[in-house]
Design goal:
Distance between the termini: 13 Å
CATH class of the largest domain: Mainly Beta
Bound molecules: adenosine-5'-triphosphate
Oligomer: single chain
Number of strands: 19
Radius of gyration: 20 Å
CATH architecture of the largest domain: Sandwich
Shape: globular
CATH topology of the largest domain: Tumour Suppressor Smad4
Strand content: 25-35%
């Protein structure tokens, strides 16, 4: 166990479980794992089990746990649950502080991947639904500072945070549609992409990197902003992203037609799409995006982060100056 676990006998480990994750399998697997987890974490650790009752509940549970100075808040479920737990570490654009008087170590974020997609787990080479591997990781409690991406939409006063990938236009719309077809497992992302293409038009966008000059980027099909490498249940969309290097990798697809998407689909899973002529890549700390044409058209350009539909352009994507402790 980590040295600070011995120094502080009252360590709360809060497990935020989405019982409906992976079409209900998350709850079954969690129940099987819990007795061994209790045994291995031992008496020094207080295991708090919180089952979510619906969307966004995980945000509230995590926020309260951080305020109360929990040693760790662990998302048990898919990337959607992880995303909500992450967002619980922040409020009003600031990291949540523990209650006055608490002087223990910072709260760490943890993950037991038991969802459909598990894209962050894939980025670290962790197996999804591997009980022993997950227990070992939590018990060992090895922490590493991880980068957090932020999305700001001027119309929406609430900033959103992401660990995997934010994106805009076709990919964001496809993700939004995919969320309605989760019952089909990973196939939901393919269904989402095909449906999204039906009403899709490539758009000229204006972008600004790290506060420099605005430039027009023609015929954007989708732009993906990666803190980590994967989205959509295994698409290696930002293959050079590294969640520890303080940067976001931006991959844009230009002028794609629906048949390009079918023909090139395998390259998105392999991460080799970045070598295609219609794909550009950049490394940034801040990316601002708005429509180049008629501003009313920007209401048609979807924006998402870690699979959550956030709204429409304009949007600002950035890496947070402060990192988060993450259980690796
Ligand atoms: N009790 C609940 N009932 C219904 N929906 C919930 C509940 N708890 C959480 N959710 C929602 O379920 C969404 C998906 O959850 P989660 O990511 O854990 O599982 P998943 O279905 O495996 O999906 P993913 O593809 O993200 O891995 C979350 O974004 C959350 O908003």
């Amino acid at each position: 166990m980590a040295p600070d676990a011995i120094a502080n006998p009252q360590r709360d480990y809060v497990f935020v479980v989405n019982p409906t994750g992976a079409n209900g399998r998350t709850e079954q697997q969690w129940k099987k794992m819990l007795p061994e987890l209790k045994l291995r974490l031992g008496k020094d650790c207080n295991i708090c089990e919180a089952l979510t009752t619906g969307p966004t509940h995980a945000v509230e549970i995590a926020r309260e746990a951080v305020r109360n100075g929990a040693a760790a808040v662990v998302a048990v479920g898919g990337d959607g649950t992880l995303h909500e737990v992450l967002n619980g570490f922040f409020e009003d654009g600031m990291p949540v502080q523990s209650r006055e008087g608490y002087s223990g170590p910072r709260t760490a974020l943890g993950l037991i991947p038991m969802g459909t997609g598990s894209d962050l787990a894939r980025c670290f080479g962790w197996k999804s639904n591997d009980k022993l591997e997950a227990i070992h990781r939590i018990v060992k409690d090895r922490r590493r500072r991880i980068d957090v991406g932020r999305v700001q939409l001027p119309d929406d006063k609430v900033d959103r945070y992401f660990l995997n990938v934010a994106s805009l236009h076709l990919s964001a719309k496809a993700g939004h549609i995919a969320s309605m077809y989760k019952r089909f497992g990973n196939l939901c992302y393919v269904i989402g992409a095909l449906k999204a293409f039906r009403s899709h038009e490539n758009r000229d966008l204006r972008t600004r990197i790290d506060g420099s000059q605005w430039t027009v980027v023609p015929k954007v099909t989708a732009t993906c902003i990666g803190n980590a490498k994967y989205f959509g249940g295994g698409m290696k969309i930002t293959p050079t992203a590294d969640p520890f290097n303080g940067r976001l990798e931006v991959v844009s697809l230009h002028g794609f037609k629906w048949y390009d998407f079918i023909l090139k689909m395998h390259t998105l899973y392999l991460g080799t799409h970045v070598h295609l002529a219609k794909v550009t890549t950049t490394s940034v700390r801040i990316l601002e995006v708005e429509a180049a044409e008629n501003k009313s058209k920007q209401r048609e350009v979807y924006v998402q982060a870690d699979g959550e539909h956030l709204g429409f352009l304009p949007a600002k994507f950035s890496i947070l100056p402060q990192q988060l402790d993450f259980i690796m």
